[in-house]
Amino acid sequence: MKRNVIWGVSALIPALMLCGVVLAQSAQVATLRGAEVDEPVAIDQIHRNIEGRMQRNYRQQPPLIPHTVDQYQIDTRTNQCLSCHDWTKAGERNAPTLSMTHYLDREGNELDHIAGTRYFCNQCHVPQADAPALVENDFEPSSGR
């Protein structure tokens, strides 16, 4: 009896899977983009970069980037941010130097080069922009800046 139940269930599973595939293929899914995946879509410029530095809202907030980074290459081999902001070049390029925390490894040892944990700048830093809020926000900065 138990063997018959196992055979019945094992025969039913492929049939149910086939029905699921057929239903998924026949369903019409609307795209969020309003276009096919391989169709290029023109993107409107919805915001503009703000020149100059914006004030931070809280202690330890990573600074916002006051310039566009659209064409910057940041990958495992190249980090174009370091061409101006590394401590060896910042003075001659008139750019802010990275904080010393960027040159500490996980154990707190000082390094001569940027730590691997701080190498990808856009993990924490984003370009500042005059963009509409995506969600309502009533955050107020602390008074003790």
TrEMBL record:
SUPFAM superfamilies linked to this entry: Multiheme cytochromes
Signal peptide coordinates: 1-24
Chief site of localization: periplasm
GO molecular function: metal ion binding
The keyword Transferase appears for this protein: no
Modification after translation: Binds 2 heme C groups per subunit.
Binding site for heme c 2: H102, C121, C124, H125
Binding site residues for heme c 1: H67, C81, C84, H85
Protein keywords: Electron transport, Heme, Iron, Metal-binding, Periplasm, Signal, Transport
One Pfam family of this chain: NapB
Tree of life domain: Bacteria
Keyword Plastid: no
Subcellular location: Periplasm
GO cellular component: periplasmic space
Function statement: Electron transfer subunit of the periplasmic nitrate reductase complex NapAB. Receives electrons from the membrane-anchored tetraheme c-type NapC protein and transfers these to NapA subunit, thus allowing electron flow between membrane and periplasm. Essential for periplasmic nitrate reduction with nitrate as the terminal electron acceptor.
Alphabetized PANTHER family for the sequence: PERIPLASMIC NITRATE REDUCTASE, ELECTRON TRANSFER SUBUNIT (PTHR38604:SF1)
Family: Belongs to the NapB family.
Quaternary structure and partners: Component of the periplasmic nitrate reductase NapAB complex composed of NapA and NapB.
Name of the protein: Periplasmic nitrate reductase, electron transfer subunit
Native organism: Rhodovulum imhoffii
Origin organism lineage: Bacteria, Pseudomonadati, Pseudomonadota, Alphaproteobacteria, Rhodobacterales
